[in-house]
C-alpha cells in the first residue's frame, strides 16, 4: 500500500507536457500542528523528502531497515527570512534542477546531497513557501519557530517511522544560521525532558550552517569593510556609513530591536547603493543567482497536485521582506552566537562553512564569531583553537578546494571562488566537504606552516 504523501513523478516543465520520474523514494505534503495562539486552528508545515540513493526504492523498507536507519537524515533550511527551502532543492543541493529557459525545464542533477544521505527540505517558518496557517499566523521569535518545527518533525516521523532512528543533522544557510541552532537546542531540550522513556527521542547528531546570519552587528561592519576593501566605497562614504553604524549599535545596546533592524537594513541598502548595487551575496556579480521559472513552476496546479499541496495554497518566497520577515523584526538583528556555544558544549558535531565572496555573512564574520566563542571558554581552549592547523584542502590538479580547521566537535571550512550559496557555486566541492564531515572522511591536503610548498618556478618570489 502506497503512502498518501508518496511522490513518484513531477511535471518536467511549466506546460506539463511530460513528467520526470523521481528515482528514489520521495514523500511530500504537510504536517499539521495545533496552534497555541489560536486554539482550534492549525499551522501546516510543508516538507519534501528524498531517500538516499544508497537505498533501493524497489526493495521493501522492512527488508533494508538497517541500511535506512544507519543512513544520516539531513534537514535543509533556507533563510530569508521568508525564503522557501525549495530554492535549495532546485537551485543548490537537491536532486532536481530547473532551467531559466522559457519552458522551465526540470532535470535530474548529479550533485544532489541525497547521493549518500536522506534529505528533507522544509518550508518554515509558517508563511514560507507552501507552509501556511489557517488564520494567517506567523512566528515572532526563534523559540516559537523551533517548537513548531520540532512538533512538525515528530509528526513526519509518525508518518514515516522507518526514518525516526536515522542520525539527524539540521543544516541550512544564511538566516537559517538562526533557525538551525534554535531547532537543535529545542530538540536537545525535548530529548532531555523525555529521558524517562515516555516519549520517542530524536536522534540529533549535529548541525551544519553555510554563510550564517549569526551576529548581525559584526556582519554589517564586515560588509562595510569588505565593500571598501574591494573598491565599492570611497573613504568618505565609508566614514558616513560608520557614523550611521554607530546609531545602529546604539539601538542594539538599548534593546530597541525593531529600530535596529530598520537601521541595519538601511545600512546594507546604502552600502550596496554606493557601490552601484553589487550583488550582496557575491561581490563579483551585479545580480543574485537567477530563480529561473521556479515561481511559476511551483505555482502551477500540476506541480501542487504532484506534491499533495491544496490548490488554494500559494507558494510564498521572499528574502528579508514580506510578512515572515516583518513578524521576526525583533529577531533579525539579535546575536545568536551563544546558541552555538551551547550546541558545542552539548557535544554535537558542528560544521560552519563560508564562500569567500559573500559580503552579507561571509568568512570574516564566521572566523571572528568562532574566535570569540573559543575565547569565552578560557585561555587554553582559545589557544588550542587558534593553534589548530588550518589545512589547505587540495585536489590532484588545480587550485585548493578549501581551507579546513577543526578542533574537538567543531569544524570550519572556507570555500574559495564561491558566493553566499556555496552548494550552488561549488556543488561538487560542497558535497564532498559535507560528506567528509558527516562520515569522518579525511580532507587530503597539507599544513602550510609545517610543510612549505615550493612555488612554481622553484625559488622565492623577489620584489
How does this structure look, described?
The protein has 463 residues and is of the alpha/beta class. Helices cover 36% and strands 18% of the residues. It has 15 helices and 16 strands. The chain is globular, with a radius of gyration of 22 Å. Mean pLDDT is 95; it is low at 457-463.
Shape designation: globular
Q: Span from first to last CA?
A: 74 Å
Could you report the average pLDDT, rounded to the nearest whole number?
95
* Beta-strand percentage range: 15-25%
Question: Mind telling me the C-alpha Rg?
Answer: 22 Å
Q: Which percent range fits the helix content?
A: 25-40%
What's the number of helices? 15
Number of DSSP-assigned strands = 16
* Helix-strand category: alpha/beta
Largest sheet: 12 strands, mixed
Poorly predicted runs: 457-463
Layout of helices and strands:
Blueprint: E1 9-11, E2 19-21, E3 26-34, E4 42-50, H1 65-70, E5 73-77, H2 86-93, E6 96-98, E7 106-108, E8 118-123, E9 132-133, H3 142-159, E10 168-174, H4 176-193, E11 204-212, H5 216-229, H6 235-253, H7 257-274, H8 294-298, H9 301-306, H10 322-327, H11 337-345, E12 349-355, H12 363-376, H13 379-387, E13 390-393, E14 402-407, E15 410-415, H14 422-425, H15 427-438, E16 445-446
Amino acid at each position: 500500500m502506497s503512502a498518501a504523501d508518496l511522490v513518484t513523478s513531477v511535471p518536467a516543465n511549466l506546460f506539463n507536457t511530460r513528467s520526470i520520474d523521481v528515482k528514489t523514494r520521495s514523500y511530500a505534503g504537510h504536517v499539521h500542528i495545533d496552534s497555541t495562539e489560536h486554539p482550534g486552528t492549525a499551522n501546516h508545515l510543508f516538507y519534501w523528502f528524498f531517500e538516499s540513493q544508497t537505498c533501493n526504492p524497489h526493495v521493501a523498507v522492512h527488508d533494508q531497515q538497517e541500511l535506512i536507519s544507519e543512513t544520516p537524515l539531513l534537514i535543509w533550511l533556507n533563510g530569508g527570512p521568508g525564503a522557501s527551502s525549495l530554492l535549495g532543492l532546485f537551485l543548490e543541493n537537491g536532486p532536481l534542477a530547473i532551467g531559466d529557459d522559457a519552458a522551465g525545464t526540470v532535470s535530474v542533477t548529479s550533485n544532489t546531497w541525497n547521493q549518500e544521505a536522506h534529505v528533507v527540505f522544509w518550508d518554515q517558518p509558517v508563511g514560507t513557501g507552501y507552509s501556511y496557517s489557517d488564520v494567517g499566523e506567523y512566528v515572532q521569535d526563534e523559540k516559537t519557530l523551533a517548537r513548531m518545527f520540532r512538533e512538525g518533525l515528530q509528526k513526519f516521523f509518525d508518518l514515516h517511522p522507518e526514518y525516526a532512528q536515522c542520525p539527524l543533522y539540521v543544516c541550512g544557510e544564511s538566516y537559517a544560521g538562526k533557525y538551525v541552532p534554535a531547532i537543535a537546542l529545542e530538540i536537545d531540550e525535548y530529548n532531555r525532558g523525555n529521558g524517562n522513556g515516555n516519549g520517542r527521542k530524536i536522534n540529533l547528531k549535529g548541525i551544519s550552517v553555510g554563510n550564517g546570519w549569526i551576529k548581525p552587528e559584526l556582519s554589517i561592519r564586515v560588509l562595510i569593510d569588505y565593500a571598501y576593501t574591494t573598491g565599492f566605497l570611497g573613504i568618505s562614504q565609508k566614514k558616513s556609513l560608520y557614523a550611521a553604524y554607530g546609531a545602529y549599535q546604539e539601538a542594539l545596546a538599548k534593546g530597541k530591536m525593531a529600530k535596529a533592524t530598520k537601521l541595519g537594513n538601511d545600512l546594507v541598502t546604502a552600502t550596496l547603493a554606493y557601490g552601484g548595487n553589487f550583488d550582496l551575496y557575491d561581490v563579483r556579480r551585479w545580480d543574485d543567482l537567477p530563480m529561473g521559472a521556479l515561481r511559476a513552476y511551483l505555482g502551477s496546479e500540476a506541480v501542487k497536485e504532484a506534491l499533495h499541496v491544496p490548490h488554494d495554497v500559494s507558494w510564498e518566497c521572499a528574502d528579508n521582506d514580506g510578512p515572515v520577515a516583518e513578524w521576526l523584526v525583533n529577531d533579525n538583528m539579535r546575536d545568536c552566537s551563544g546558541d552555538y556555544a551551547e550546541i558545542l558544549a552539548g557535544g554535537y558535531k558542528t560544521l560552519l562553512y563560508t564562500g569567500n565572496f559573500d559580503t552579507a555573512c561571509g568568512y570574516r564574520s564566521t572566523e571572528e564569531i568562532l574566535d570569540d566563542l573559543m575565547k569565552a571558554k578560557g585561555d587554553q581552549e582559545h589557544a588550542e583553537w587558534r593553534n589548530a592547523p588550518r589545512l589547505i584542502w587540495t585536489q590532484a590538479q588545480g587550485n585548493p578546494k578549501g581551507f579546513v580547521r577543526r578542533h574537538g566537535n567543531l569544524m570550519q571550512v572556507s570555500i574559495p571562488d564561491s558566493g553566499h550559496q556555496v552548494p550552488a557555486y561549488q556543488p561538487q566541492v560542497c558535497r564532498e566537504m559535507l560528506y567528509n564531515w558527516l562520515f569522518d572522511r579525511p580532507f587530503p591536503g597539507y599544513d602550510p606552516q609545517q610543510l612549505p610548498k615550493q612555488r612554481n618556478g622553484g625559488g622565492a618570489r623577489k620584489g
